[in-house]
Amino acid sequence: MGGSASQLPRDLLGEYQELTFLSKQEILLAHKRFSELLSKEERESILQKRVPKSQILTLPELRANPFRDRICRVFSTSEDGDGSMSFEDFLDMLSVFSDSATSEIKSHYAFRIFDFDDDGTLDRKDLEKLVNCLTGEGDETRLSESEMDQLIQNILEESDIDKDGTINLSEFQHVISRSPDFASSFKIVL
Ligand SMILES: [Ca+2]
Ligand SMILES: [Ca+2]
Q1: Quick one: which of 62, 104, 148, 175 has the fewest CB in 10 Å?
Q2: Using an 8 Å Cβ cutoff, are 43 and 4 in contact?
Q3: Ranges for the EF-hand domain (predicted)?
Q4: How far apart are the CA of 11 and the centre of ligand 1, in A?
């Protein structure tokens, strides 16, 4: 690493510590990793720059995540909907996926990530995509149509308390609260 990378100003570091679940060390590491995604010239003004989604997805911690596209989409504040991230978007993402984030925050964002069409509720189509993300694209692991129907039926029976055929945020959080492993699995650590 050359010495030309810009430093994070002290007052901003303090502000980010207050606004996120991240420690000082985690913020500094995030700053380093984010600046490595920028060219030398861009590093001079890191806080004004956005990194394209394709670059963000080169991070091994995200590349391995089946929900990587949705994660970029949910945390990106880009008005073009292109999933590009500013440094603050990047910090928000790491904050939610950190060990210190509450499981309420985590489940709130998990819901948004799984809500593929961003309409505020998980319907059969969202659940189908969710299951496909988890099983992978391969023909061998993919569920047959009847297996998929059965699985979605089971998921809805478990979670759709008001029986309207979809899972809303509070129904989702209710299910998540019964699964103790969720918070520890919803994690990205640089
Ligand atoms: Ca939806
Ligand atoms: Ca419902």
Answers
A1: 104
A2: yes
A3: 80-100, 102-137, 147-182
A4: 39
Separation of 38 CA from ligand 1 center, angstroms?
A: 34
Cα(161) to ligand 1 centroid in Å equals 17
DSSP 46: G
Q: Are strands 85-86 and 50-51 parallel, antiparallel or unpaired?
A: antiparallel
Is residue 120 within 8 Å of residue 129, measured between CB atoms?
A: no
Report residue 175 as tokens. Answer: 């299910």
Q: Considering only CA atoms, which of 160, 189, 183 is closest in space to residue 62?
A: 189
One digit per residue, the tens of pLDDT, for the chain of length 190 reads: 444 456 888 899 999 999 999 999 999 999 999 999 999 999 988 999 999 999 999 999 999 899 999 999 999 999 999 999 999 999 999 999 999 999 999 999 999 999 999 999 999 999 999 999 999 877 788 899 999 999 999 999 999 999 999 999 999 999 998 887 888 889 998 8
Q: How far apart are CA 142 and CA 144, in angstroms?
A: 7
What DSSP string describes 89-103? HHHHHHHHTSTTS-H
Nearest CA-CA partner of 125 in 113, 137, 133, 117: 117
* Rounded distance from Cα 163 to ligand 2 centre (Å): 5
All domains in the chain, ordered by first residue: 4-96 (1.10.238.10), 103-185 (1.10.238.10)
Nearest-angstrom CA–CA distance, 79 and 81: 5
